[in-house]
Design goal:
The complex is a heterodimer. In chain A, strand 4 (63-68) and strand 5 (71-72) form a beta hairpin. Helices cover 41% and strands 25% of the residues of chain A. In chain A, the strands form 2 sheets. A 6-stranded mixed sheet of chain A has the order 6-7-8-3-9-10. A 4-stranded antiparallel sheet of chain A has the order 2-1-4-5. The longest helix of chain A has 18 residues, at 180-197. Chain A contains 11 helices and 10 strands. Chain B is α/β, with parallel strands linked by helices. The chains are: A alpha/beta, B alpha/beta.
């Protein structure tokens, strides 16, 4: 495998997704490079989450190829996909914590599943520092998800997605529903985790501040495909009406000014 | 492929090698527990890779044995620094209570919640009465469309399943009755058995159980998910009373449909029993129905029809009340739906026992 190919963590080619008559993606191509934070933006209903679900194998596409770590994700059964699954972590929009388990137990689930040899003490220690790492208060570990606020659930979900020390992290709207302070803190957290752990991050967001603050590149979904990928200045140079309106609209301007 | 994580001991120096990552640990943590002596230095110069779990193990070992970490490259040092900052003793499990106390607490909680449920149900009944009175005073608030829709869902849509169930029950009663009565040469009394038990008891009771399972649960689930989605709160802020808009149509529809469904159920059961008698006991249908008319007093029909709306009220109230109690998460909807069915059927059977005693004592035997 050449150096350039090795550098590509996720590669999507010719992806087509449709629900009945409604075509979500058609001929979608996307590459995610190692060690970058790729922001994925697009209007409501352009299939950002569906794209993520296609990549992680929760949505079976009608056509196209998806490769993660150089391995095809299409048409593989669960046992074959385990090797790849161990290497990624996924944070769903609402945190998707298991409601019958405490936060610490939630973090321990992937560890127990894949590494049954670990003893309980080490599991607890790993869960503890992951919980601290995700920025939760120390007393959150023995709590159940129903006792947590929305922001804390997301952090707990992040702690669980980091449990296996993944190389690749999927974040589905991590800052949606957080207050600006919480959202900024989550951005900081994502960035510092990326730097310390060398993560590659696939980040779906609507949050312009997040895009400016932490994303290395941004992929824009529109017209059923990725119409552009690049840094924000590169995207701004393009003459696509949706991109112009997105980044140069009042909110886009404000976020840009805040960045300066 | 990177090699497994490993280490070698040399006097008081510990030297790690291989990939110090979660996937390649093997039994390393256990072996680290049983070191011959605590190391003074931990050498990381021989490792290929390290992740936070590896960094944690190194940090823990260094912390516990006061060792010095040497030879760490920038990545390893960064991770070790990171995890050492995060090293705080954390309570991982909720506080455990002794089993005896827990059993006591559960019993207490169950008692409290039973009384609270009863209290809430009475209050809910009151709210329904108040809303009904409001509608009577102001009839334009009567939601005809919603009620008609519930008539369809609760009544018409249930005809198939209730018909099938009743038909089969009619056959079972006839068959079992015939077998037992044949021993006394009293096979012909099978007709009395079928006519009286279906009209008086089983028709309405089985219908009530079916309606509780079909509609009571649906009420709880619908209203519960509306509460979760804050639809109920939205109604309140707009000025629409949720009891009026959601509960009254369902309660009215169930109260109105139960006697009809109960009567229909009894009728279909009698037809089922009649067919069995005709085919298996050679009693012609015409004789069967004549006998039914002779042996079933009209009071049996009244008993069934009087009980039915009360059962309907109980079932609809249990469903709507439990739906309204939902708060928090989706799990609650499931629990409340189950509770609606259990409470509905339980209360129906308790009331049925009271009715049986009551009707007997007023001479409707």
């Amino acid at each position: 495998m050449s150096k350039a190919e090795d550098d590509i963590v996720i590669s999507v080619r010719g992806l087509r997704n449709a629900f009945g008559d409604q075509v979500i993606h058609d001929g979608l191509d996307l590459d995610v490079h190692r060690g970058e934070i790729l922001g994925v933006v697009g209007g409501s209903g352009t299939g950002k989450s569906v794209l993520m679900r296609s990549i992680i194998g929760l949505q079976y596409p009608e056509a196209g190829e998806v490769h993660v770590f150089g391995q095809s994700m299409i048409g593989r059964d669960d046992t074959e996909a385990v090797d790849v699954r161990k290497r990624w972590g996924v944070l769903f929009q609402g945190g998707a914590l298991f409601s019958t388990l405490t936060v610490a137990e939630n973090v321990e689930v992937p560890l127990r599943e894949y590494y049954p040899a670990l003893d309980q003490q080490l599991l607890d220690e790993i869960a503890s520092y992951k919980i601290m790492m995700s920025g939760l208060p120390a007393d959150a570990a023995p709590k159940y998800p129903s006792e947590l606020s929305g922001g804390m659930k997301k952090r707990a979900g992040l702690a669980r997605s980091l449990a296996l020390d993944p190389e690749l992290l999927f974040l589905d709207e991590p800052t949606a529903g957080l207050d600006p302070i919480g959202a900024a803190a989550f951005d900081e957290l994502t960035k510092s985790l990326k730097e310390t752990l060398g993560l590659t991050v696939f980040l779906i967001t609507h949050d312009l501040d997040t895009l400016h603050a932490i994303c290395d590149r941004v992929a824009v979904l529109a017209d059923r495909k990725v119409i552009a990928v690049g840094t924000i200045p590169e995207l701004l140079a393009l003459d696509h009406p949706w991109i112009q309106e997105y980044f140069n609209g009042p909110r886009g301007r404000a976020a840009l000014d805040a960045k300066r | 492929m990177t090699s497994r994580a490993d280490f070698t001991e040399q006097d008081d120096a510990l030297r790690f090698s291989g990939a110090l990552v979660l996937a390649r640990l093997g039994d390393l943590p256990q072996r680290l527990e049983s070191l011959s002596q605590p190391p003074r230095t931990i050498d990381l110069s021989g490792i290929d890779r390290i992740d936070t779990v590896g960094a944690w193990l190194v940090h823990r070992l260094a912390r516990d044995s006061n060792a010095e970490v040497t030879g760490a490259n920038a990545d390893a040092q960064r991770l070790i620094d990171q995890v050492s900052q995060l090293d705080k003793p954390l309570q991982v499990r909720p506080d455990a209570t002794p089993p005896f106390v827990r059993v006591l607490a559960q019993m207490g909680a169950a008692t409290v919640s039973a009384f609270r449920m009863l209290y809430g149900l009475v209050g809910f009944f009151g709210a329904i009465l108040v809303s009904t009175w409001d509608i009577i005073r102001e009839p334009r608030r009567f939601r005809g469309n919603a009620i008609a829709r519930q008539f369809e869902v609760v009544g018409v849509d249930a005809l198939g399943i209730i018909g099938l169930m009743s038909f089969l029950i009619g056959i079972v009663i006839a068959q079992q009755g015939a077998v037992q009565l044949r021993q006394f040469g009293a096979e012909v009394f099978t007709i009395n058995l079928i006519g009286r038990i279906t009209l008086r008891e089983l028709g309405v009771l089985m219908t009530a159980i079916m309606v509780a399972g079909r509609s009571g649960s649906a009420f709880a689930a619908q209203i519960g998910s509306m509460k979760l989605a804050e639809e109920v709160d939205a109604m309140r802020t707009i000025g629409v009373s949720p009891v009026e808009a959601l509960v009254i149509p369902r309660v009215l529809a169930t109260v109105a449909m139960m006697p009809l469904l109960g009567f229909y159920s009894a009728l279909v059961a009698i037809i089922g029993g009649g067919l069995f008698c005709w085919i298996s006991l050679d009693i012609p249908l015409i004789t069967f129905f004549q006998r039914i008319r002779e042996v079933v007093p009209i009071t049996d029909l009244w008993v069934g029809l009087l009980k039915a709306p009360v059962f309907g009220l109980i079932i609809a109230m249990a469903g709507c009340f439990n739906g309204m109690q939902v708060h928090g998460n989706a799990e609650e909807v499931g629990l409340r739906t189950t509770a609606a069915v259990v409470q509905g059927i339980f209360l129906v059977i308790v009331l049925d026992a009271f009715f049986a005693v009551f009707f007997s004592s007023i001479g409707w035997v």
